[in-house]
Every structure is written in C-alpha cells, then in structure tokens.
Amino acid sequence: MKNFSNKRTPDPELPYEKCLREGPGALSDAQLLAVIIRTGTQGSDARELAEKVLRLVPSKEGLLGLHHLTVAELTEIPGIGRVKAIQLLCVSELSRRMAACRAVRQETFGEAKAVADYYMEKLRHEERESLHLMMLDVKGHLLREEKLSSGTVRESLLSTREIFSTALRNRAVSIILVHNHPSGDPTPSAEDILSTQRVYRLGREIGVPLLDHVIIGDHCFASLLELKLLSPDEIPELPEAKPGPLALLPFWSGDPGETVPEDPGEPSR
User: Using one digit for the tens of pLDDT, what is the confidence trace for 46-59?
Assistant: First the structure.
C-alpha cells in the first residue's frame, strides 16, 4: 500500500493503517482530512497540513471552518495546491448535501423544524443572506426548491411577482419561504415581518398560500408562523410607533401584554 505521510509519523497513527485497524470513527478530524490530502510536503506530513487547514479560520476553528474557506485561502498553505483545495471544498459540500438528504426524507414539510433540518447545514454557514422558495404539493411534499436571491432579502421579498410566478409555473399548491441570518441570530426583523405579510396576503388571494417563513440561524431557527407573525390579521392593534429606524425585533409570543412595531408602510425600492 502506498504511504502518503512521511516517516516522522509513528506507524500506529498513520491514518490509513488506523482506519483499517479501528474504522474511520477512530480517526481524529486531522487524520480524516489527512486521508483526503494524501501527501505532505517537505517539512510537513499530510496530518500536519490537515491541522493547518483546521486552524485557518480562527472564528470557526475545526471542521466547520471548511464551510467558510475558498480555494485561494486554502492554497495559501504551502503544500495545498488547487487540486487538494478543491477536494477539501468538495468534502465540505458533501457534508451539507448529506445533511439535506437526511432531512428531505421527512414525509412532509408541515412543521418548521422539518424545514430547518433541511436547510440548517446548507445555510447556517453562509456569510450573505439568501432567500429560498420551497414549493409543495397537496400533501406537503417538496416539488421543487429555488434560490431566489443572494445578498439582499428585503428587495427579493418585495418581488412577490417572482415568488408566485415561480410557484405557479411549478404547479405548487403552497409555498414556504426560507432565508438565513449570517449573524447566527434568527430573530425576525421588522422588514422580514412586513415583507412576509405582503406575500401572505397575495398568496391567500391567488390560492397559493404561504404556509410559513423560516429564518435559519446558527443551530437555531425562527418560524413566523409559530411566532404568530405570519398574518397581519393575527397581530393585535399596535400602539403609535416611535419615530426612527426599526431595529431587530425580539421573539414575540403573541401574549396580550407584548407588542411589535407598527407597520411603517411600503418601504421604498
């Protein structure tokens, strides 16, 4: 068997040998990556290169850092060329898709948790907001999903024409909106709420209801349906709004003593 690490690594700790002897579950994160990297360079074996990769993103040290790296950043490490960088990023993408495959086996997307499970690994690492449209059949099964935007969710949510033309083209019976908050905090903003309510109203009028809008954070999520913020009809009469920009809203339970900011009207495009 071809050896891909240099002789400074003790035999029992060679990733290939250890995997054959004890199984892949016995390998450390660095050893698993070393199997992908395969060869080292002068002065560093494959495992040492893997450890450098795992330290490359200080704020997300470890395997999660792979989701935030680019080919250019990986190739800054001596011994990591474009081919190895691409292989590592493909491993990262495989992990996202495997997580999504597990979630899509849900019978229906009738609950916010099922939606969050499906999108969590796909969106929680993203550094820009992106808006996704889930199109469902009469039983709540996913017919198709489509990414509507990346960057500015507010403007895309206002484009109700695009949302419903896409839904009707794919013969969706109902829809769910999903977007991420790169901060990791899924608390819906005033703009999230007001824009969603416009989509909700139009969906009710044309017969393709918006079932929910799920916001993905870092290992957490918010459902506007569960927070009783989906329909403007469900929100009690609000006090006069104070002047000034609207800040992020706290989670709202719908209790009589709690309020949300007043709708400031249609935001300008």
Answer: 888 888 888 887 76
